[in-house]
Amino acid sequence: MEVSNNKMPLDEFLAQRKDVLKMWKTGIEVEDLEQSFALHRRLGENKNVAAVLKKGRSEKRTLISLRCGKPTVEEQIKDLIYIQEAGADLLPVTLDSNTRNLHFDENEEALKTGKRINGYPIVNHGVQGVKRIMQAVSRPVTIKHGSVDARLAAEIGFGGGFSDINGNVYSWGLTYNKSVSILKVLKVQQYIARLMGYYAENGIILANEQGGGQGPGCFRVPCISISNTILGALISAGQGARCLQTAYGQGRNLVQDIASMRVLRKLSDEYMSKLGYSDVDIYTILHQWQGAFPENPDEAMGVICLGAATAVLGGADISVIKSTQEGVGIPTMESNAAGVRATREIIHILGNQRMPDNSALEEEMAIVEAESRAIIEAVLDIGNGDPALGTIKGIEAGIVEVPFTPSIYNYGKAIPVCDANGAYRFLECGNLPFPQWVKDYNKKKIDERVALERGRRQPYEMVLDDVFCMIMDRAQNEYSVSIHINSCQEEDENDIKALYDDNIVMGVIGSDSHAIGNRILEYALTSAGFHITNLGSFVSQEDFINAALETDAKVILVSSLGGHAAVDCEGFKQKLIEAGLGHVLLYIGGNLAVGKTDWEIIEKQFKDLGFNRIAKPNTRPIVTIKWLNEDLAKFH
């Protein structure tokens, strides 16, 4: 299939569109686009995201958006009106997981039986549902999703009056799935952008947030976000999209966040102009902190207010906010509204204030720009100036990637870590095309953290500390220093190496997409000298068994973070025995149960399932290394 950033010919787009509308029966409701164009004209600028963005920028005002998805039209309207009255500028409709996976039949059954749906099933409710929402609210509505194929969702949303959708090839292609090809995701994103382009040709400007492929909430590395979101925006612009939003995810260092937002705006404008898209309006978004939130609502409000202040001081056009219940479950409309009101107050207080220039800010801007520009230029170069072709080739070559994602197409060799002040750096750069001075700068900042922590540890321990502190809602320095000082590890423990050269297979079992712990453990075991075959995420029992047979593995390391490990591992030991692998040792670790369950109960459960070693949550890699050396000795 040809890869190009050239605009899809109209006849080719319309031919493909016929197949898209056949994906579900409600597709027939948007066959006549002239009706959709007329609807948007009647709705007017106050219900159009692009128009509201333009007005907000002219007023130098940061707009407020968020996420909210309910299963019925009535519930969705109720929530949207509530947060609209609280002061949200852009109203969200977050799609459910069945819609994201194109399981429209399952939603139809759930709607009939009353089974709960975890979001808004836009395709099942169809254009009529979207129209009812637009009639009920007085502000623009955005579509929030995480699907690798949102073509029909976009058609129905736009057809009923929604005027914005998120996602690009990096965010949905690398971050949320394991085996869907990047080329397929690229073609889907180009279709959605071409649809937006067709609307634009008929006088209707729709908006597209470029998600940026930012990866897990705890490692939103600036240059990854910036380069990926800009390259995605260039791809959408190539299909005629006229209003684009480039996004950045808040980190733990205020100076780095402000610097990154400045660089994002500068490079977005620069590359749009450089590639000839001067007629495109481009805006910046700050996503508030997406790591762990405090369970206490008062403490959560502090995180929200910091995010709001960061957005204003960084000059963001939009702040996508969180709720005070983020740390305990699905937010209520009241908690969402509380986050909106607090953010609105911060915006009101700060007004047009921006972070003043200073040496620390200038230094951070220089490194973030150098890293981001290096990636963008390398992708454009490998694609001969074409960002779509460059994306496909660049991902394959590893000059552009997203750390810690489940995709088998992601190069996955870059490893981020925090420095002494919580700013993101690279412990390993992989194939990211950084100049030597940039690599040296990253090393210097990491060395400063090592000195602060008063000792010598394996590098992966710092990465692990950063993960733990973010999932446990603790300050990075507080956690990493205390865990190091209080762990009482002897110096020789940090140097422990593999004693045997037997093969080990590892992976995340079942439908679990979590990849970060798996990748860190692989890095630790490989550094110690073990021979590892890492199957990544979404691994079946059969995949583990086949890999063990192929490599003559002596140990299988199973990870599970979703809490359903007991179900995923049922009968695993018996299948190993039937395959002639009864001698293979089984390890398991992660989050092995839903809710709070006594560890003794969990441990017995997995021993009964045939596992030899069961690791508690937050077990350090050094423990696994010791176990492996002890257990592999039995084979020698």
Describe the structure.
This protein is of the alpha/beta class and 636 residues long. The protein folds into 3 domains: 15-73 and 86-283, TIM Barrel, CATH 3.20.20.240; 360-492, Alpha-Beta Complex (Glutamate mutase, C-terminal domain); 497-635, Rossmann fold. Helices cover 50% and strands 11% of the residues. The chain has a 6-stranded parallel β-sheet. A 5-stranded parallel β-sheet has the order 12-11-13-14-15, sandwiched between helices. Strand 11, helix 20 and strand 12 (531-534) form a beta-alpha-beta unit. The longest helix is centred in the middle third of the chain and has 24 residues, at 359-382. Residues 474-492 have low confidence and may be disordered.
Describe the structure in brief.
The chain has 636 residues and is α/β, with parallel strands linked by helices. The chain is built from 25 helices and 15 strands. A six-stranded parallel β-sheet has the order 1-8-7-6-5-4. A five-stranded parallel β-sheet has the order 12-11-13-14-15, with helices on both faces. A two-stranded parallel ribbon has the order 2-3.
Keywords for this entry:
636 residues; alpha/beta; TIM Barrel; Glutamate mutase, C-terminal domain; Rossmann fold; six-stranded parallel β-sheet; five-stranded parallel β-sheet; 11% strand; globular
